Amino acid sequence: MTPPDRQSPGPQRVRVTSPRMRATASQPRRAVDDIDEQTGIGEVYMRALVGSQLRLALGVLGGFVVSLCALPVLFALAPALRRVEVLGVPLPWLLLGVLAYPMFVVAAWAYVHAAERAERDFADLVERR
Amino acid sequence: MGSSATVLHPLAGGLAVLLVAAATVAVGSIGFRLSRTTSDFYVASRTVSARWNASAIGGEYLSAASFLGIAGLVLAGGVDMLWFPLGYTAGYLVLLVLVAAPLRRSGAYTLPDFAESRLASRPVRMVSSALVVGIGWLYLLPQFQGAGLALRTVTGFSPTVGAALVAGVVVLNVLAGGMRSITFVQAFQYWLKLTAIALPVAFLLLAWSADGAPNPAEQGLPSGRTDVRTTLPATVTLVAEVPTTLYVEGEVGPVTEDGGEPGTRGPDAVTQLNGDLRLAPGERVVVRSGSVVEVPAGQPVPHAEPVSASTGADWAQPLSGAGGRDHPLYATYSLVFALFFGTMGLPHVLVRFYTNPDGRAARRTTAVVIGLLGAFYLFPPIYGALGRIYTPDLLLTGRADTVVLALPGRLLPDPWGELVSALLVAGAFAAFLSTSSGLVVSVAGVLSQDLLHKDALRPGHPPVRAGADTSVRRFRVATVLTVFVPLLLSLSTTRVGLADTVGLAFALAASTFCPLLVLGIWWRGLTAPGAIAGLATGGATASAAVTLTMFGGPYDGWAGALLAQPAAWTVPLAFAVMVGVSLLTKRRVPARVGRIMVRLHAPEGVSVDRRA
Prior knowledge:
The complex is a heterodimer of chains A (about 130) and B (about 600).
Chain A: H1 19-26, H2 31-37, H3 40-77, E1 85-86, E2 89-90, H4 91-127
Antiparallel strand pairs in A: 1-2
Chain B: H1 10-34, H2 38-43, H3 50-61, H4 64-77, H5 83-106, H6 111-119, H7 122-155, H8 159-210, E1 228-231, E2 236-239, E3 244-254, E4 271-279, E5 284-287, E6 292-295, E7 303-304, H9 312-316, H10 328-342, H11 347-351, H12 359-377, H13 380-390, H14 393-397, H15 403-411, H16 416-451, H17 472-490, H18 498-522, H19 528-551, H20 557-564, H21 567-584, H22 593-601
Antiparallel strand pairs in B: 1-6, 2-5, 2-7, 3-4, 3-5, 3-6
């Protein structure tokens, strides 16, 4: 015996709901629908996400530029710093050759976590009914 | 110090090179078994795991400039040269925060794909394709030059053989397996390179401390601890800082007034010498290739132009202009600019992002890459610093780029010296092979899709997607073409050091694709005319500077500094033109820009419509 065909024509059960109920309580509109339909509200959500991600990116870049790119200026303005030694290694060599790299790794992971948190928040916001 | 032309028995050196080449092709062929369809061929079907991918990115990125060039720069130019490895790493941080996730989410396979889908413009695609090929060739050039140099150092073969060998293995490898095989090969290459650069450092530092740990910063001008006797592998112009007496067996001549290529003035300008040559401070003299030069112990070694001698104290200090670099503060910032913002525009770097499963993975992979690169870059400067003490003759022969390969033979007793040299040779060849392969895959992909396609320039030609109708045969023709052009170029120009040529490729990438990517991802107002104007401006100014630096000059003072490190002015210029022209052509903003922003920025977990 073959299993019953689900697509076969015939009387099927139809769910009947009041139009008013469907519009309000059981199927509330989500922000993702606005994004899909490119409405003004959807646009606001997207601009908020892009803006927050861009601010985060520029914040990381800014902190990194200030701390790293200040070094040449610092060495130019305070020549005494060029000759400072730490544990027998000249300070410029230690900073540029060794210490900068762990700093990069820390900055990278901090950014990854912050960016993922921002995306989780966005997902919670737009998927909420 | 040894007078032999090679640092290694030619047989041992040749064996190391052959082993790396064979291993590369063998590991690649594992991938070949798995790569059948065209989409496999291009992007490994996007099934490469994040850890593999990070190793592969590291393996692909660490080129001859990293493995050999940095140590050479540090040897000649001192602490300011540490900005090169810093910039190479920091470029990934910039890429991570500005580009990584959105670019992966865009779903594009190549830079031209991204440009076209973002701006709905075929001309933007064509301009991008031409730039990808240009940057790729410029980046391949030092790889082939480095390979020739390294093979000459270890075996004494002519540089042409080394360059041709690497080119041949790359073509074989790419044709055998495409990107899938490359991913396995690249991941393997990273760990090989890290081992090859790190392990010898332990031996070298032991030998150095047994020698009384001499401090390179406390030296005066670089001078040999024993008599330095060396055979010139190329014609050089020597300059002495102090009155110097050299013993020369070979051909010597004055520098011509017009500053032409040294030693090309005909036989009457050159005299055969078998005896002492006295140099007054600042006097310049041309010594022909093949001459034997001897400098007595303790006497400062005259330097081959364009490098000039600096004392240990100057060398160890930032911004001292050590090595004869003008305007060190500007040069440092401009270099940093090029490396920070150029990384995202390198074709072989971007193509790696499509093998991540999604945007989130692209970010995490990038963060791992930063760690892997940082670990590697701790080591090359140590070679440069030890070279100040043990291989000052490389400043005389103008072969500072070979310091990594030359050191073990000077510091370690045989057989350790030979073994460690062989390991370093293997690492150097891994560097040439991996970077070249990655570049060739991405450049050949673009070349075959866009520029070699018979309908490519016809208006209304439908966009070509990789894997759709791009035939594998066209890809193979493109591969050969991609390798052949830089191989020819590598035989002609040798004036600019490895890491400097790579720096110019970065400058070109930073002046073109950086504005396109950053504005394309974050700014809705970008238009196709704006993008083309910006790409053209950045591309023209940066490549003019590159051409003048490599084939014209040398230029002194500000002109030389601005041309040798153009990024500080070409990148802002390209950004300004791109924004300005876009604002003037506001009506050309793509109608679907809102959709595209959703596609680029919406996190994977959110169920939105991602069709562009």
